Structure formats: structure tokens, C-alpha cells
Amino acid sequence: MDTILAGRTVVLGISGGIAAYKAAELVRLLVRAGAGVHCIMTAAAREFIGPLTLQTLTKNPVATSLFDLWDEQEIGHISLAERADLCIIAPATANCIGKITLGIADDMLATVAMATRAPMLIAPAMNVNMWNSPAVQENIRILRGRGVHIIDPESGELACGTEGTGRLADITAIFERAAALLQVQDYRGVKALVTAGPTREFLDPARFLSNPSSGKMGYCLARALQWRGADVTLVSGPVALQPPRGVRHIAVTSARDMEAAVKEHAGQARLIIKSAAVADYRPREQLRQKQKKQGGALTLELERNPDILADLGARKGDRVLVGFAAETENMLKHAQDKLRAKKLDMIIANDVSSPGAGFACDTNQVCILTPGAEPEHLPCMSKDLLAHAILDRIQRLLS
Ligand code: CTP
Fold first, then answer.
1. Residues 150 and 221 in one domain
2. pTM here?
3. Whether 247 and 361 share a structural domain
4. CB-ligand 1 contact for 307 (6 Å cutoff)
5. What integer pLDDT is reported at residue 69 of this predicted model?
């Protein structure tokens, strides 16, 4: 399957708490991202959610008993433990956390957790007093010390009717941590600055000039960088997307706002990717009050905005600079010209007029140009996957 977690195996352990039903949503996200998921349920978890739900979603048998010898052939605990690229326990009860900390292997989940050498991500969920108890806090401290990743529970209303910390962390947050743990951390230590989205150039308080950029490509790049270990700053024009978790997000409106934010953060960046669709012109005059219509035509006078990327190219230093070229004709020629004129290390050219590419699509088809090399045409793919394909190529420039 052609997705970001294709070929990766996740073992998902589910222990018995009311949040067990939320595991189904986590499974759905992992499967949709291409991972092979094998679920293990404790006896208590089966009181809250049926194995059939998870089996249907994963298309894999659900491991329940340690002593089921037939299952042992197929999904035996050692085989599962060895096959896992990542072991997640969500929700993890106080009891489950206690057993894993002490090394008690009296059920399938605790046994696999002990036998696996894969990274482990634990998402606890329990009553607030149990979470705050010295026993659980001490166990969490010990597990963290052993390199286990813990995704802290959230506060809010708990199933037992009380308020406090103990709710299972947001399922998307668990998914994103898992996806990051499944990536090669080849951008660890790299400070990266990404720009995304359109800019808006206001004529008056009620009207602006802009373009159809949705910001998706830039957000996918920022998220992929974060997953691969980079320290990411995302400067974004107005878009309808949630900033990726763990990314420093700076919201801007106009090209000049974007220029100021980029200047402020460019100094620390080793890598700059400019995927924003910056407006080249702004109205010469920005009216304080709404322009009233009059008879006849209206002529607007526009003036040039700064070319943020060209300015960065002129003061390049040892930074790696990557641009995008949005074209509607002579794509390669125009992209080559921009690569040279803006002194870039790479430009990603896309024909924004072709279906399945460019603005506001979930997919993109691009051609990657680097100085002195043949253009590399990539097939049409999801922007998520394309972000990783681009990062694979930028990695060679960084090293
Ligand atoms: N860019 C920029 N500042 C601008 C215009 C563009 O930083 N004022 C950056 C974009 O983020 C992109 C690259 O330059 O990485 C190329 O942008 P594009 O819109 O394709 O081209 P332009 O340089 O604006 O040229 P033209 O509009 O004439 O095609």
C-alpha cells in the first residue's frame, strides 16, 4: 500500500478500561496510514469492546489468551514481539503499567511487552487518584527511565464521574507519536523553517488579493520533518488546517508579514523550505474604510512585494534552500530559471493547472530539480507521501 506507514508492523495492546473502545479509532488511523496492526486484548479489555471489532478493522486475528496453542502457531507471543516495529499500549491501566514495570508476564499483553525489543509507547488511562498515586507515578518514572515513551493522560471529566487528569490522551496525538516513532530519525538536530499557504494583500478591511493555496503541501512537509526528528518552525499564511503537533507555528497574513517572520527565524535554520504561495503584488494603497462602489470601472494600482526566497538566496550561507515553482506552462524551463535566479539547492516544480496536482488537492505530481542534475519526475501521490519523498532527497543535500 502506498502510504506513510506501509510495511510497518504495530502491535497494539489494549487493557481493560472504559477508554478501550477508543482503541478502535487508533486502529483505524494506523491501518489507513498503511501499517499492519495486530491487537492483543487483556481479559478485562474484552469486557469493554469485542475482539471482532478489532479483527474486522485490522484484518488480523486478535490475540487474547496466552495459552491458545492454535493461535500460538499464527500469532504466538514471541512471533508478535519479534515482528513489531512498535508496541503501543492504549489504554494502559494502572494494573497493566504495574505488571510491565515489575516484569510480571501472566497474560499475552504483558508477555509480549516483556519479550519485544521494539520501541514502546504507553498511553495510560485511569481514575485521577490512581494516576496521582505514588505507585503509578513511580512506575511511570521507572518506565520513562527505561526508554519507554509515555503519552500523558489528559485532564477533564473522567468516566468515574470525577474531574482531573486520567483521560486517555487524544487518539490523533497517540497516532502522531506512533507515526513519529516509526520514522527513521534522519533529521534529528536539524533546525528547519517551512513556509506554507497563501498570503493575503488587503485592499480595504473587507477585500483582499490572494490565491487558492490550501497550505496542505507545506503542512505535510512540516509534519514529516517533525516526525523525522527536526526542530520545525512553520510560518503560515491563512489556511484552514490544524498546525502539526510539536511544530512551532507562526501565523501571518501578508507577504510582508511573512518576510518579517522568515527573517526572524532564518538565522537559526539549517534548512528552509518555501512552499508558500506568496502574492507578488499588493495594492499600492490599503484603505482604512471599505471602498464604496461607483459607476464605471475601477483601476487598482499594485506594487511589488519582496521576493522572500530570492532575498534568502542572496544571503545563503551554508543553509539548504528549497523552493517550489507553481507553473501553468513551460514548467521545467521556468523552474530551472527560478532555481538559478534564487540560488536554490532544489526546486519542486508543479503544474498547478493539471488535475490531481497543485493548489488545494490532496495529491500532487511534481518534478524535482537540483543544479547540474537531470530533472526527476515523480508519479502522482498523496501530499503526505510526497513530503517524505522530498525529504529523502533533501537529506542527501544536508549530508
Ligand atoms: N516566493 C517568495 N516570495 C515571493 C514570491 C515567491 O518567497 N514574493 C517563493 C515561493 O515561496 C516559491 C518560489 O519563490 O518557493 C517560487 O514561487 P512562484 O510563485 O512559483 O514564482 P515567482 O518567483 O513568484 O515567479 P512568477 O510568479 O513570475 O512565476
1. no
2. 0.91
3. yes
4. yes
5. 41
